[in-house]
Design a protein that fits this description.
about 210 residues, Arc Repressor Mutant, subunit A, Tetracycline Repressor, domain 2, 2 domains
Length: about 210
């Protein structure tokens, strides 16, 4: 087996362990989860687990750093598209929501358990979070250039994150709406408020389906 193949298998195994650990951390909490439980969920012996991660804190960092790195890549990718100001923020929100749909456990761990990391690891995660905040704040300014000279863009961005980041505490992804369907609702609510929210009436939607 080549070095590249060994490296690829190692990365795949670390990804699997992280995914299983994220499920446990999201359900039980970081503090209440043991390395034994992570090993069992990953179908590994405890020595096998320690071959990939030296301790539970390293597992946690791998989860949150991986998740926030993907978020940073997503927002900088949207930024590089050079979208019109009115399209940039909706595109960012939709991209975020779709990522959350695939990484609900990782997102819960990022929002709730990053405090268990040491100062250096937290600083690394925070630096990438600042990139995410900056891109969203720039999109707010693009949508409302008149706010550029005020402190409101960053404050409004944090309000938006407050709405998006804690959806996992109440949103049921297997319910009547998907993350993709929630994205335009979140966008309209943020940009126009409740009075400007446009939602298709269920009866009209059912009528449309009957015609098609």
């Amino acid at each position: 087996m080549s070095v590249d193949q060994i490296s690829s298998r190692t990365n795949e195994q670390r990804t699997l362990i992280s995914r299983k650990a994220a499920e446990l951390f999201a359900r039980k909490g970081y503090a209440a989860t043991s390395m034994n439980e992570i090993a069992e969920a990953s179908h590994l012996s405890k020595p096998g687990l320690y071959h990939h991660f030296k301790d539970k804190a390293e597992v946690l960092f791998h989860i949150v750093d991986g998740h926030v790195s993907r978020l940073a890549d997503i927002v900088t990718g949207v930024e590089s598209l050079g979208l019109a100001p009115e399209r940039r923020l909706p595109e960012l929100i939709e991209a975020f929501m779709l990522e959350y749909a695939e990484a609900q456990n990782e997102h819960r761990v990022l929002t709730e358990d990053v405090r268990f990391l040491d100062a250096e690891a937290q600083a690394c995660v925070l630096d990438k979070e600042r990139t995410v905040v900056r891109v969203f704040s720039d999109a707010v300014v693009a949508a409302r250039p008149d706010l550029d000279s005020t402190q409101l863009p960053k404050l409004l961005t944090m309000f938006l994150f407050g709405m998006l980041n804690w959806m996992f505490t109440w949103f049921q992804p297997n319910g009547r709406l998907t993350h993709a369907e929630m994205a335009p609702i979140a966008t309209q609510l943020f940009l126009h408020g409740v009075s400007g929210l446009e939602v298709e009436h269920p009866a009209a939607r059912a009528k449309l389906h009957r015609r098609s």
